[in-house]
Amino acid sequence: MTFNRRRMLHGLGGLAVLTAVPACAFGGNEAETPTGPTGDAGPENPFGVAEDAALEVVIFKGGLGDAYATEVHEPMYAQRFPGAKVEHVATQQIAQTLQPRFAGGDVPDVIANSGTDLMDLGALVDANQLLDLTPLFDAPAIDDPKVKVRDRVVNGSIEAGLVGGKPHALMYVYTAYGLWYDAKLFEANGWQPAQTWADFDALCAKIKAKGLHPFAYPGKNAAYYQYWSILVSAAKIGGNKVLVDIDNLVDGAWTADPVKQSAAAWAEIGAKYLDKSYEGLTHTEVQTAQNQGRIGFFPCGSWLENEQKDQTPDSFEYAMCPLPSVTGGDAMPYAAIRTAAGEGYIVPSQAKNSAGGLEYLRIMLSHEGARGFTERTGSITIVKGAADGLPLSPGNKSVAAAQSAAGDNIVTYNAFENWYKELETELRAKTNALMFGRITADQFCAEMQAKADAVKADSSIPKQQRNG
């Protein structure tokens, strides 16, 4: 079974506003080599971790919780290094918590850099604050020392963590994205997910006639849930090159016809079916409203079901479907979905035990570490076969079916979200303005293009490039 999780950004839960942090705010150092005490390196200890060196792990406690760290990965590390003290820190405000520590040179050894308040990877790399993880992927796998770690993970997952051409983040979770709904509610009303935009519009009208809000997203703290939808639809219209051009700051990428068509289609859904109140609500509030039977469709990634497990009644059954085709001539079929590796884990180059940080990530990439993660979060990792045989929830079953139907028709991720925080922050604001009727699709595209042009022209912002 192959799921894909990216977002790369998001297991969500934090409510802070994402801000771009300049590289100088993180301080700087001259190298990206491991620091701290070292022990004897060998096949069982490829990074030469000192047996008694303490390890500090900072985990974003959002939709995935942190039991996977406290009950699986940290005990596995302690078992390998019984003389080491493992300190666990859980927070929903990664940047707010850690930016002062980076500036002061007092950094943890492993960080789950995720949530709304994540740190700017580009700025960290520009300041030489992160280890290049190439040695991790070239190290022997815990399960089979004859095999490199890189050969134990699914294709494309290492590339998802590239910044400056090197893997500076371990994107650990395999996520699928789409429209989430209550399968039991839909069955009771005779509703089926729509494959065309006209049918989607008609279905939303039926849902509205039942007294429900047909579509909603959390404008207060997770507008990216909706800009993902706009970008995915644009890619389905024009192909993945649309998204690659946006990442590469290509002139006119935001004003290309597929982006305009997608923005216009989604703006119409916003005008007809999106209640104004959702601009002021958080993701937890909107997700709970869906669990209460008040919302038809909710755009999100496959962590949603686990995040809501304590609020989901027995009468509610999560399912996910692809976004409907916008035009009759879309480049990608209806079944195409966005999948990607996400949830970034990083090792600071100035950590007191950065060798231990690398070893912690190697443990995460073991069969036992990855399987334990899935058992506690319901989310699939990038480790091949680690989740085989585990029982799947209804939501994950629908994701598996959607991914099987998609085949090779996969919408790529967007790297600008990690590369250019100013652009990402602007996109949140413009997405809300578009969906809640303050600007038109043409204005949305023009204003996003203007921001992209400004980022491109700013020589102080390190530029990145991707091929596909």
Task: Please provide a written account of the structure.
By secondary structure, the chain is an alpha/beta fold. The chain folds into 2 domains: 211 residues, 3-Layer(aba) Sandwich (D-Maltodextrin-Binding Protein, domain 2); 201 residues, 3-Layer(aba) Sandwich (D-Maltodextrin-Binding Protein, domain 2). The chain is built from 17 helices and 12 strands. Strands 1, 2, 3, 6, 7, 8, 9, 10, 11 and 12 form a 10-stranded mixed sheet that branches. The protein has a two-stranded antiparallel sheet with strand order 4-5. Strand 1, helix 1 and strand 2 form a beta-alpha-beta unit. The two termini are 24 Å apart. This is Carbohydrate ABC transporter, N-acetylglucosamine/diacetylchitobiose-binding protein. It is found in: Cell envelope. Belongs to the bacterial solute-binding protein 1 family.
Q: How are the SSEs ordered, and which strands pair?
A:
Layout: E1 55-60, H1 67-80, E2 86-91, H2 94-104, E3 110-113, H3 121-126, H4 134-138, E4 162-163, E5 166-167, E6 170-182, H5 183-189, H6 197-209, E7 213-215, H7 224-238, H8 241-247, H9 257-273, H10 283-291, E8 295-301, H11 304-307, E9 318-321, E10 337-346, H12 354-364, H13 367-377, E11 380-381, H14 394-406, E12 410-411, H15 416-419, H16 421-435, H17 441-457
Parallel strand pairs: 1-2, 1-3, 7-8, 10-12
Antiparallel strand pairs: 3-10, 4-5, 6-8, 6-9, 6-10, 6-11
Helix pairs in contact: 1-12, 1-13, 7-9, 9-17, 16-17
Organism: Actinokineospora fastidiosa
Signal peptide: 1-25
Subcellular location: Cell envelope
